[in-house]
Amino acid sequence: MLNLPKNKKIILFDGICNLCNGAVQFIIKNDKKDIFRFVALQSELGKEICNYIGIDQNKIDSIIFYNPGVVYYYKSSAVLEIAQDLGGIYSLITIFKILPEKLRNYIYDYIAKNRYKWYGKKESCMIPTPELKAKFL
Fold it and tell me: Which of 57, 43, 98 is nearest to 76 (CA)?
């Protein structure tokens, strides 16, 4: 069993992706209820969580939203669940749940496939500032 914080939802993200890092910064800024913790997919803990929930990291190119012991989502469903938990105006994004998941994921995959080309990537995972360190596992 993984030793994860109680009552926190885990967002696993591509630690070298500039778009993903920007999304993490946005979520942290708007996480008024302190719901989320973050783990880079490339980290040891990221690999352990993926293994634990049965996701082959070699076959997934996506954000993963994991509510420990309850459920996990990836791709567009992860984005929509995160938006819902952020609440406020961001929960309006969940209107896209009316679209078929296959269509949502097609759009998600197109963006994911081009994210390095459009937004670039880092040589290594982001190192959080001391103030943000508590948000990362």
Answer: 98
Amino acid of residue 74:
Y
**Strands 71-74 and 64-67, sheet pairing:** antiparallel
Can you tell me the distance from the alpha carbon of 116 to that of 58, in angstroms, rounded to the nearest whole number? 17
Q: How far apart are CA 113 and CA 107, in angstroms?
A: 10
pTM: 0.90
Distance CA 67, CA 56 (A): 18
List beta partners, residue 64: 12, 74
pLDDT digits (tens), the chain, 137 positions: 678 888 999 999 998 888 998 999 999 999 999 999 999 998 999 999 999 999 887 777 789 999 998 999 999 999 999 999 999 999 999 999 999 999 999 999 999 999 989 988 877 666 667 777 788 88
- C-beta atoms surrounding 115 within 10 Å: 17
Contact assessment for residue 37 and residue 9, using Cβ atoms and an 8 Å cutoff: yes
